[in-house]
């Protein structure tokens, strides 16, 4: 089967293919550099440190973050979200979140709830829309943080982060944004959008490898108040047995995934060169084509905003008489189309859009998807839906 | 880089790379080297410059709000 031409529409889970420079940068690191970044002073170690720093600079540039040294790398967005939530929330604190969150936010919050953190989940509409006024109404005197999905991983709906960011500033709260589905695919400006903590993953629209991600920590966040998830060697302050108290080292104990960060740097620089606006326009065009095509197929229910401008290029649907798992299996086996089916790790979002517990079929497009691929997939779905009617 | 030298001690390797870039952008030759043992037992790196550039280096890093632990003649 390897080598067979496939249509890869599972980019909301992880993007593929990657730009050619990604594998090249990773190979370069493994074959020519190889050393531990900054743990030693020799030239290869220094070169590895430069690669990690270049990745910080690329990420900071993409999100308009002022200081590359406030980009703390980790293994994925889940780790970054755990760092932000577990690192900042204390018993008695109140946090506001939405009903469109992924389990990477919900599960840490439910665990913190058992430790005395109060959680309010603001309901969203069946399309996944969030009313900023409802967020503001949920704020209490004990509220310290608003944690928000930038776009749903199930239906792609964009949440009003900039509006909520303004509310957070006004009420002197911190805003944490889960940018898993938007980083690299939709413009993000942490300063203009009022985002204090931006959690991102490297392996989706930033087009890097798995095992990369991180947290952009804004100036309004007091690093002294951020509790690291883990402690250990950092290559700094080695004479002390206490964890460093400065970013990014305090959050980056243990040897970094430097080969991964070399790939991430190449991926982010590809995005910067292509331009997020250009990528976004491409994805809006394809998502619009996909949504319009799906809506014309009898027996299909399409979820979400049904408006490419109000969502990412991730579209969920169900076919009457066909279980999502069956659709996914047949798309793979009969049409070589890769997608994701089921609950997408976001039970609250599925309850919100009315697809719990059966889930949906999800197509996730990318900067590399084409109109031809969309048309082939639409025809495959059309045939399948027709057979059961 | 010949003659008397100085090292800029910073908080982390990331800070050292940043300092090196800032200095090189301003035309000040610099090199990342292991922290001399007599200055710190830290296992990290620091930025070596010419002693004659020490004052301008401090100005450049200050202007970039780049906190340094110290600049030492070696």
Written account of the structure:
The complex is a heterodimer of chains A (389) and B (74). Chain A is α/β, with parallel strands linked by helices and 389 residues long. Chain A has 11 helices and 13 strands. In chain A, the strands form 3 sheets. A 7-stranded mixed β-sheet of chain A has the order 2-8-7-6-5-3-4, with helices on both faces. A 4-stranded antiparallel β-sheet of chain A has the order 9-10-13-12, with helices on one face. In chain A, strands 1-11 form a two-stranded parallel sheet. In chain A, helix 6 links the parallel strand 5 and strand 6. Chain A starts with 6 loop residues before the first strand and ends with a helix. The mean pLDDT of chain A is 96. Chain B is of the alpha+beta class and 74 residues long. In chain B, 31% of the residues lie in helices and 26% in strands. Chain B has 2 helices and 4 strands, in the order E-H-E-E-H-E. Chain B is globular and about 30 Å long. Chain B starts with a strand and ends with a strand. The chains are: A alpha/beta (389), B alpha+beta (74). The interface between A and B is medium-sized, with 25 and 19 residues.
* End-to-end Cα distance of chain B: 13 Å
Radius of gyration of chain B: 11 Å
The CATH topology annotation of chain B reads as Alpha-Beta Plaits
**Major sheet description of chain A:** 7 strands, mixed
The helix content of chain A is: 25-40%
Largest sheet of chain B: 4 strands, antiparallel
Q: In the residues of chain B, how many domains can be counted? A: 1
Mean pLDDT of chain B: 91
Kindly report the CATH topology of the largest domain in chain A: Aspartate Aminotransferase, domain 2
SSE string of chain B, helices as H and strands as E = EHEEHE
Shape of chain B: globular
Low-confidence stretches of chain B: none
Strand count of chain A: 13
- Count of discrete domains of chain A: 2
Share of helix among residues of chain B? 25-40%
What is the CATH homologous superfamily assignment of the largest domain in chain A?
Type I PLP-dependent aspartate aminotransferase-like (Major domain)
- The CATH class assignment of chain B is Alpha Beta
Number of continuous helical runs of chain B: 2
The termini of chain A sit apart by: 32 Å
Can you name the CATH architecture of chain B? 2-Layer Sandwich
Corresponding CATH architecture of the largest domain in chain A: 3-Layer(aba) Sandwich
